[in-house]
Amino acid sequence: MGSLISNYIVVVSISGVLSVLLGLFAYYKKTDFAGIKPFIYSSFFSAVYTFGFALELSGSTMGEIGFWIKVEYLGMPFIAPSSLIMIMYFVGLERLINKKLLTLLFSIPCISVLLVWTNESHHLFYQSMLFRENAPTPLVDVVMGPWYIVQGSMTFGCMLAGMCLILWQWNRMKRVYRRQMITIFIGQFLPALGAFLYLIDQTPYGMDPVPIIMSITSTLYIWAILSRGMLTAAPIARENLFESMRDGVLVTDRSDMLIDYNRAATEMLEGLDSSAIGHPLAKLFLPAGKEAVDYVMNADPLLSEERELAWNLGGSTCYYQVRSSPVLKKDGSLAGRMIMLIDVTERTLLQEKLQQLATIDSLTGIYNRTFFMEQSRTLLEEASVNQIPLSIILLDIDFFKNINDRYGHQYGDMALQHIVGVCRRHTREGDVFGRYGGEEFVMCLPDTSLQQAALLSEAIRNDIERSAFYTLSGPINVTASFGVAEAGRENISLEELLSEADHALYTSKRNGRNAVHLSSGAAITHFNPL
């Protein structure tokens, strides 16, 4: 046996040993990479193939060589499909891996194994096998059968698909992941090139170079696993946890220049695309409005913080919860920061609506009684501390029941809204206006004396009397009665003040309505501005 063949057998055997070691190393390596199993299977099938080929080269008779060729096919047809499945996991396409795909990929290799082991009875895989002339050792040439072409097409198709997937994902992966991608690409390209040279009879003595090449790719894989973190969850994490996150993520360097972002962020920020890489974050946040720009300019990159911002997007206002955290190098120095944008618009609007329901009367749009009491109690305390006057006005629509009975509740609601509209024309900044109950309304007037409150009440009463609200049944005129009280003594409670105003209001009702009466604590008097 020539020294070339002997050396070839040694190298092929070493390739088989490396494949076994690679499979064992991957098996015992703790990793979250979901594609580790097909990688192990690929290494196992490679070992079967290379050991079978080494024994084929050592055979001296057609029977021995034919047997070891059959052994080779227990591994060789399954290598490319297993590698393709591993690559699909690596680039984040595991959602496409299902029983239908696995059946499609592995049914042809299974049929190939069956046909190779039964070839003598049908010759569908090899039409014939004969010894190569002028070879330094017994080497076999084969005449391809129809299924040989099917299996070869399947193998090249899987290898080509794997390489295409890697190239497709190239621009989506960061540089640290590209090293792993290059390793896997080489692991696909070199065997495919060797198989192609073998098929066009461009190898020494027509020998299959793929097992030799596998010693190179196995060594490369082992090196990549040990030094480059290959077959970790990192690429999957970026595709499935970074790119597929519903929340937007931005990564900046120490100068707050954008260096990375995910797909969700492009939907949350105007103008975010690949051209934004390397630009200041403040420029990117500029269309979002003042709050967003202030956040970028004033946030400390060394601190983790969280805040909610109003965000202009496409002419409408959204609300984002912005979480910022520093990105540190291994030595603890600052590398940049990561900013997460969480769309909380729906939650914020719901909170605002709940807040509105808790504070606003739904029919009239003014404060409800509960919130009015809270606000007025605070103003009363401030007035007492600062020794400034504060007055209360209570007003009640006259003969409101008659409106409901005669025209219906719909017109009664319109009357309430009409009164609110008139009163709003007279309220001032700082006044608190609310619905006290039914057809009764209340105003809290800080820094307002009894006389000033009386004049305001008279102006509102006169405006209501002169204003009609228009309906399908024609114009309807309404009037209102008023009671006014001032917090004239120390430590008076809001309830006491409201009680005094209520007594004054009752007096207006009892004395003909459509009038203003004042309570000075000890006496109630009719207010006549003339």
TrEMBL record:
Q: What is this protein called?
A: Diguanylate cyclase
The segment(s) forming the PAC domain are: 303-356
In terms of InterPro entries, this protein maps to: Diguanylate_Cyclase, GGDEF_dom, HisKA_7TM, Nucleotide_cyclase, PAS, PAS-assoc_C, PAS-like_dom_sf, PAS_4
Stored Pfam families: GGDEF, HisKA_7TM, PAS_4
Start and end of every GGDEF domain? 388-521
Instruction: Please name the NCBIfam families in this protein's record.
Output: GGDEF, sensory_box
Q: Which domain of life is it from?
A: Bacteria
Presence of keyword Phosphoprotein:
no
* Keywords recorded for this protein, A-Z: Membrane, Transmembrane, Transmembrane helix
Q: Which PROSITE patterns does the UniProt record give? A: GGDEF (PS50887), PAC (PS50113)
Transmembrane segment boundaries = 6-27, 39-55, 67-89, 101-118, 148-170, 182-200, 212-236
* Native organism: Paenibacillus tianjinensis
